[in-house]
UniProtKB/TrEMBL annotation:
<keyword id="KW-0808">Transferase</keyword>
<dbReference type="InterPro" id="IPR003789">
    <property type="entry name" value="Asn/Gln_tRNA_amidoTrase-B-like"/>
</dbReference>
<dbReference type="Pfam" id="PF09424">
    <property type="entry name" value="YqeY"/>
</dbReference>
<dbReference type="InterPro" id="IPR042184">
    <property type="entry name" value="YqeY/Aim41_N"/>
</dbReference>
<dbReference type="GO" id="GO:0016740">
    <property type="term" value="F:transferase activity"/>
</dbReference>
<dbReference type="InterPro" id="IPR023168">
    <property type="entry name" value="GatB_Yqey_C_2"/>
</dbReference>
<protein>
    <submittedName>
        <fullName>Glutamyl-tRNA amidotransferase</fullName>
    </submittedName>
</protein>
<dbReference type="InterPro" id="IPR019004">
    <property type="entry name" value="YqeY/Aim41"/>
</dbReference>
<dbReference type="GO" id="GO:0016884">
    <property type="term" value="F:carbon-nitrogen ligase activity, with glutamine as amido-N-donor"/>
</dbReference>
Length: 146
């Protein structure tokens, strides 16, 4: 399981005295545990992937802000954290691969208008969790249905 892989990575990083990496992974682990406690469920790999994707997105937004404001020191920290978290995400799909999935899902559902976008997006999100940016997915679906 993905949670076990994160725990193992923390142990490995601790033995290697990679304190910054340990801090990032413990932060992610704490977010996962907090969600499990709040919802009173045990997250499966799919749920953990969603958390990892959200954590990556938050850091990418911070990275953009820091770069815009000329704070390279903070930008480097965010880049490092993104790299650490990305180790646990599956290989991202290319825009071409996403286009094929979008076309297939629209054809399967027979979607013809923006009113069906929600059902198409829900199906695609389930198929691409952790492997595609939901914003890009949304853009592709809108282009096909709009």
């Amino acid at each position: 399981m993905l949670k076990d892989q994160i725990s193992d990575a923390i142990k490995t990083a601790m033995k290697a005295r990679e304190l910054e990496k340990v801090k990032v992974l413990r932060n992610v682990q704490a977010v996962i545990k907090q969600i499990e406690i709040d919802r009173q469920i045990a997250l499966d790999d799919h749920g953990v992937l969603e958390v990892l994707q959200k954590q990556t997105k938050q850091r990418q937004e911070s990275l953009a802000i820091f770069q815009d404001n000329g704070r390279e020191d903070l930008a480097q920290k965010e880049k490092f954290e993104i790299d650490v978290i990305s180790e646990f995400l599956p290989q991202a799909l290319s825009e071409d691969e996403l286009s094929v999935l979008v076309d297939a899902e629209i054809a399967q559902q027979g979607a013809t208008s923006m009113q069906q976008m929600g059902s198409v997006m829900n199906a695609l999100k389930a198929q691409t969790t952790g492997r595609a940016d939901p914003a890009l997915l949304s853009k592709l679906v809108k282009a096909r249905l709009g």
